[in-house]
Amino acid sequence: MYHSLIPLIGWGATFLVCGLAWWKGADPERLGASLKLITSVIALGIHHLLKQDAISAALLTADGVLAVGFLALAIRYASLWIGAAMLLQAGQFSLHAWYLVSALERDRFYAIVNNLVTIGILICILVGTLIAWSRRARAVARTPQAA
Hints:
Layout: H1 5-24, H2 27-49, H3 52-77, H4 80-101, H5 108-142
Helix pairs in contact: 1-2, 1-5, 2-3, 2-5, 3-4, 4-5
């Protein structure tokens, strides 16, 4: 279990952003939020279910899946926020690959970069959701109401 309040705040932010994306976002935001939430739950399972020597390879695989998912969304929807999230996830993938290939122990630098990338991706999803919500509200406001 967690020994700090910080991971719980992180999970709360993840659920809050993903919930808002599902509620107010368009298809790209819903799909991006779903990808992020699913891979976050998978990463949690990896940390709790696998032995220490298998965690790095499994996390690298999960990061690769998320990066390819964002790539597919970026190709499909050509959205700036998805491109930014994809680039951040590519950095995350590179971080895991570097630590795996170099046989480094995950340290404070790893944790900081890992958490900053996660926050960045959540911000990208949030910005995309707010833009989609705003566009939809403007479209509704422009539509003449039937009397």
